[in-house]
Structures are given as structure tokens and as C-alpha cells.
Amino acid sequence: MRGITPAVRFLIILNVVVYILEYLFHLPIANLFALPAVWWKTLSFGQLFTYMFVHGSFSHILMNMMGLFFIGPTMERRLGAYRFFILYYISGILGGLGWSLLASPGQYCVGASGAVMGILGAFAALYPHAKVVLIFLPFYPIKAWILVSVLIGFEFFQTFVHPVFGGIANAAHLMGGIAGFCYAYSIKNPNFIGQLKNKLGKGGKSKPKPSSASSAAKLSKEDIDRILDKIGKEGMGALTPREREMLKAATR
């Protein structure tokens, strides 16, 4: 197993230090940094950022840091530290926003769960067929896209249908996971948003597909590196038909 990456190490240390300051030295950190449900009334914009570094219990921080430790390094190596930080913070912030839209006045949200869920969602977007081993199911690896689909479905059920477990910010998990998936998918398919706008703007009519020769000319080094990286991690069987076509065009 490759070592922990710098950005992941920084985030874990920061979360642990904040937890120690609060619970060992009894500093009122949660009172200052937790996200209130009606944060906009007090203009508490900073809490959208700080709440994800505060945790309510040892088990809370343990689960989040384990997720960050095991999935984070792979994502940082793929995205780079800068985009990894963006992934972490945008998932956490949008998770907090999603939670605050549904929360009742007087409630507060803490924890990195939304940010970590975003990292997991991003992992599923970039490595959908990668096998994930869960602690409580060590002998039954699950494909990343299946695991994230189940988790998102559960969080949706908890948020909008019938909450089974109380005291959990399921809306933050749900929004964080979706945000992370969308962010990573936009990196994996940089033309996705533009193509979607074109289709919507033209009544769903798409442009004719370019010839293989013109497609090969438009291939970038980043595209080839991404495909080769995917082959190295997941094998040839994980390539989509379009990726196979791109690889063939690049080798002609």
C-alpha cells in the first residue's frame, strides 16, 4: 500500500487537533464553529467551512478519518492536491447547504461526513468498477459504483422518506456525495457540461459524430494518460467503447 499523501495528511491532522482541543482541553469549539440551521440570519458564512472540522464524538471522527485515510490518497494522486482540496471543501460546503435547507431552527451540524462522502462519490465517478473492501464485509469486495449507489439511496430514504436513525445529518451526506460525484465526473468528461447545454439548447439533437481521424487529432495527452491510468488500475475490461476507440485512434 502506498503512503498517505500530503493533503490527506494535513486534513487528518487538522481534524484530530480540533477534536483534541475540544474534548481534552474543553474548549468551546463546537459553539463557535458548528453550522446553525439558519446560518444566513446571523451571516455565519464561515461556519459553512469550519463545521466540517468539528466532530460530535470519538466514533464520529474515527469513521470519517478512516474514510479519508483509505480513499483520500487515491483521489489526491489522481486529481492533484489543489483539485483534491477543492473536492473536499466543495463537497463539505454543499453538504452543509443541503442540510441547512431541510433542518429546523435551533439545530446544528458538525462533522466531515459530507466532505468524505464527496470523496467517495468522486471515487465512484473516476473508478466505477474498482473493488472496495468494507471492514464489516472483508471477504466480499463491492464495486465502487454499487457501494455509492446504495449509500446515496439510503441517504435519500433517510432524508426524504422515513428517517430510521436520528441525530444524523443525512442531507449533508446526500448532497456531499452528489457534489463530489459531479465534480469528478466533470473532470473525467470535461466536455460533458457543454455537450449537455448543446443538447438542451437544440431540443435534444446532437451533432454528427466526428470521424475517427478528426477524433484522433483532438485527443490530448491528458485523455491518453487518463485511459492508461484506468487500464493500470482496473484493466482493459473497464474501458468504455468510446475509450477503446480513442485508444485505437491514438495508436494508429
Description:
By secondary structure, the chain is mainly α. It folds into two domains: 6-188, Rhomboid-like fold, CATH 1.20.1540.10; 208-250, no CATH class. 65% of the residues lie in helices and 6% in strands. The chain is built from twelve helices and four strands, in the order ααβαααβαββαααααα. The strands form two sheets. Strands 1-2 form a two-stranded antiparallel sheet. Strands 3-4 form a two-stranded antiparallel ribbon. α6 (113-126) crosses α7 (144-161) and α7 (144-161) packs antiparallel against α8. The two termini are 36 Å apart. The model is unreliable at 210-217 (pLDDT under 50).
Summarize the structure.
The chain is mainly alpha-helical. The chain has helices spanning about 5-25, 30-35, 45-50, 60-80, 80-100, 115-125, 145-160, 170-190, 190-200, 210-220, 220-235, 240-250; strands spanning about 35, 110, 130-135, 135-145. Helices cover about 65% and strands about 5% of the residues.
